[in-house]
TrEMBL record:
Lineage: Bacteria, Bacillati, Bacillota, Clostridia, Eubacteriales
Highest taxon in the source lineage: Bacteria
Organism: Acetivibrio thermocellus AD2
Name listed for the protein in its UniProt record: SPOR domain-containing protein
């Protein structure tokens, strides 16, 4: 995307965008965790979506209704949101084991 920048260490990928679009500085707007010993609120790769949902509910996140089940490229995505922060849990089809975690912003 024009104006974007990506950093990647093989385990975590970060996306930086200009927000608003005419801003001079880029801001980190999305983080994807695909490996390594990283976690979000204690949620790690290999945990179940059910365990993660409980941890997120305790922190005030709610499962989104409009994008509850997203299937893309054989991956099932379950999203939770609190204000402008979205946590997206990725699993393989017919599995509840988390294979990827994304944290992103929902800027208007």
């Amino acid at each position: 995307m024009p104006g974007s920048k990506v950093t990647d260490d093989g385990y975590v990928r970060g996306y930086y965008f200009k927000i608003p679009k005419d801003a001079s500085d880029r801001r980190l707007t999305q983080i994807n965790i695909n490996g390594g010993d990283y976690h979000v609120f204690g949620i790690r790769l290999g945990d179940s979506v059910e365990q993660a949902a409980e941890k997120l509910k305790q922190r005030g996140y709610k499962r989104t209704k409009s994008m509850e089940d997203i299937y893309r490229e054989g991956i099932h995505r379950t999203r939770f949101q609190k204000e402008l922060v979205i946590i997206d849990l990725q699993t393989e089809m017919n599995s509840q084991i988390i294979k990827g975690i994304s944290v992103l912003t929902d800027y208007p």
